[in-house]
Amino acid sequence: MDKNRRDLIGLAGAATIGSSLTTFAGRSVHAAQADYPNKPIKLIVPFPPGGGTDLIGRFLAKQLSVALNQSVIVDNRSGAGGMIGSQACAAAPADGYTISVGITGTHALPVAMGVKQTYDPIGDFTAISLLGYSPNFLLVHPSFPARTVAEFIEVVRAHPGVYSFGSWGNGSGGHFAGEYLKKIAKLDMQHVPYKGVAPMINDLVGGQIVVAFGDGGASPPQVKAGKIIALAAAGTRRSPALPDISTFDEQGIKFIADSWYGIFGPTRLPAEIVGRLSDEFRKILAQADSLSMLASFGLVAQAAGPAEFKQLVQRDIELWTKVARDANIQSES
């Protein structure tokens, strides 16, 4: 047998082996996906235990565990406003065994403020499922001379520069909501940042400030007690935590400034796994007990699939980046 022929046969053999290995690897990956999940799943919550996001994550982990007949373990990775936990998810293997809870404050607001992140909130993640929204509330002290949004705007416009609004921190959802309302309603107000929701609510109750934007967790108890007044919910729907409080839209003001919650995985997560998880979360969010439990955490449950959820994140980044630029909202870090 001549050398050229031997070389050709050798190349053909190598090609056959390579093709076989590729086919085997492809079948192995497919089999692994078909067998998913065959080991515990880690759900990263990028905030400390006991908070609203943690409570939502733990409830959903339990429900998902039942649906998949597999353990789902909550891993609290707090720090840097949720960026440490989010980075841990982005850096995880794209095998479906590490997913995370993400919110507006981890995937949209930092980008809007130009915060230096170690991850791309779009390119480094796979959007799996929207979980729902938590509307912010426009709150006032009982002494404030307005009980509707229209009256509020009239009062503030009549006293430019006199009133300020509080939020639970610089660059928080409440801060962005206040600046956004200032822009569309043409209001002259200063921002007063607090280090957390609790001290802001305490000062609002005490009358040290008379206007604030509060979240759906800490605000409702004080509203129900009559210590502060909620003029409107800044969401697409009323909050189950305060069902008697109408939305801005219901009062004739086109204004939405809620915070969304969702589930993410690392980028390049296989479509079969994304579809499986998205379907399971959709089923979970359709259950009456899930709606009731999530409502107790101030969340308006609403599922959306991967494509729609990704579009929502992209739209929010664009919106809040514009608001941050117009209001000169900058990170303190």
From TrEMBL:
Gene3D superfamilies per UniProt: Bordetella uptake gene, domain 1, Periplasmic binding protein-like II
Keywords per UniProt: Receptor
Taxonomy, superkingdom: Bacteria
CDD domains: PBP2_Bug_TTT (cd07012)
Family per similarity comment: Belongs to the UPF0065 (bug) family.
Protein known as: Tripartite-type tricarboxylate transporter receptor subunit TctC
Organism: Jezberella montanilacus
